């Protein structure tokens, strides 16, 4: 693992942008993307830049089950608002959260991933060590699958919804094996609330109790953290 420690999230987004700038210059074709608060500043850099994504395929990590792509809380909508509307890609893929059969949607997404091997996968980090929606206990060999979200993840997502009852309890997520298939992985984590998960990811045992700990076994991982997130290393 390569650890890049910065003063704050803004500096982290700048370092991440520079990594992508280099990767695009080197000819990558497929980017694995993430949602949530962490990558927004990076996407702002993408939008403000002269980078050309018209020959790039984007595959997103996950999507809530039960939300249409037009729902403002869906990850489809998030990606359109923060990146895709401003920066056209060759093609973009996100799991079908509106599907009436989440298992079938997961299998269909695995076929997409097989056809579009990921060059660089962007990850955030959950407070419980999850990556994508791969919650603690997820087998390391899991491919795209239907996830029952844990109470802590549902609680963390509740701030985005008008009422707790509206928060989805299931999602379709790339599996840990899907993430680990990427040639390069870039994880970003900022804030003191991520410090325990960062320490377990970097220095803890490799265990399904902390899904992100599996990244210790990947040959090319870069982790960008701020001083607060690094406080327990």
TrEMBL record:
<feature type="active site" description="Proton acceptor; for enolization step">
    <location>
        <position position="62"/>
    </location>
</feature>
<dbReference type="InterPro" id="IPR018321">
    <property type="entry name" value="Glucosamine6P_isomerase_CS"/>
</dbReference>
<protein>
    <recommendedName>
        <fullName>Glucosamine-6-phosphate deaminase</fullName>
        <ecNumber>3.5.99.6</ecNumber>
    </recommendedName>
</protein>
<feature type="domain" description="Glucosamine/galactosamine-6-phosphate isomerase">
    <location>
        <begin position="12"/>
        <end position="218"/>
    </location>
</feature>
<dbReference type="GO" id="GO:0042802">
    <property type="term" value="F:identical protein binding"/>
</dbReference>
<dbReference type="GO" id="GO:0006043">
    <property type="term" value="P:glucosamine catabolic process"/>
</dbReference>
<keyword id="KW-0119">Carbohydrate metabolism</keyword>
<feature type="active site" description="For ring-opening step">
    <location>
        <position position="128"/>
    </location>
</feature>
<dbReference type="InterPro" id="IPR006148">
    <property type="entry name" value="Glc/Gal-6P_isomerase"/>
</dbReference>
<comment type="similarity">
    <text>Belongs to the glucosamine/galactosamine-6-phosphate isomerase family. NagB subfamily.</text>
</comment>
<feature type="active site" description="For ring-opening step">
    <location>
        <position position="135"/>
    </location>
</feature>
<dbReference type="InterPro" id="IPR037171">
    <property type="entry name" value="NagB/RpiA_transferase-like"/>
</dbReference>
<comment type="function">
    <text>Catalyzes the reversible isomerization-deamination of glucosamine 6-phosphate (GlcN6P) to form fructose 6-phosphate (Fru6P) and ammonium ion.</text>
</comment>
<dbReference type="GO" id="GO:0005737">
    <property type="term" value="C:cytoplasm"/>
</dbReference>
<dbReference type="InterPro" id="IPR004547">
    <property type="entry name" value="Glucosamine6P_isomerase"/>
</dbReference>
<dbReference type="GO" id="GO:0006046">
    <property type="term" value="P:N-acetylglucosamine catabolic process"/>
</dbReference>
<dbReference type="GO" id="GO:0005975">
    <property type="term" value="P:carbohydrate metabolic process"/>
</dbReference>
<feature type="active site" description="Proton acceptor; for ring-opening step">
    <location>
        <position position="130"/>
    </location>
</feature>
<dbReference type="GO" id="GO:0004342">
    <property type="term" value="F:glucosamine-6-phosphate deaminase activity"/>
</dbReference>
<comment type="pathway">
    <text>Amino-sugar metabolism; N-acetylneuraminate degradation; D-fructose 6-phosphate from N-acetylneuraminate: step 5/5.</text>
</comment>
<dbReference type="GO" id="GO:0019262">
    <property type="term" value="P:N-acetylneuraminate catabolic process"/>
</dbReference>
<dbReference type="Pfam" id="PF01182">
    <property type="entry name" value="Glucosamine_iso"/>
</dbReference>
<keyword id="KW-0378">Hydrolase</keyword>
């Amino acid at each position: 693992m390569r650890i890049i420690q910065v003063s704050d999230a803004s500096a982290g987004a700048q370092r991440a942008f520079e990594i992508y700038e280099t990767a695009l210059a080197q000819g990558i074709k497929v980017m694995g993307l993430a949602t949530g608060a962490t990558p927004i500043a990076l996407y702002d850099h993408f939008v403000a830049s002269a980078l050309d994504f018209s020959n790039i395929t984007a595959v997103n990590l996950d999507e809530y089950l039960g939300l249409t792509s037009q729902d403002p809380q869906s990850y489809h909508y998030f990606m359109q608002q923060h990146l895709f509307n401003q920066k056209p890609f060759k093609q973009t893929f996100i799991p079908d959260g509106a599907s009436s059969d989440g298992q079938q949607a997961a299998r269909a997404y695995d076929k997409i991933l097989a056809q579009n091997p990921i060059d660089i996968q962007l990850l955030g980090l959950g407070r419980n060590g999850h990556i994508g929606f791969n919650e603690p206990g997820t087998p390391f060999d899991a491919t795209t699958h239907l996830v029952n979200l844990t109470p802590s993840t549902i609680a963390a997502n509740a701030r985005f919804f008008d009422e707790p009852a509206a928060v989805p309890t299931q999602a379709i997520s790339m599996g840990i094996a899907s993430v680990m298939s990427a040639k390069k992985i870039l994880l970003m984590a900022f804030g003191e609330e991520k410090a325990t998960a960062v320490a377990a990811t970097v220095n803890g045992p490799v265990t399904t109790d902390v899904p992100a700990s599996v990244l210790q076994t990947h040959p090319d991982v870069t982790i960008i953290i701020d001083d607060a997130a690094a406080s327990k290393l």
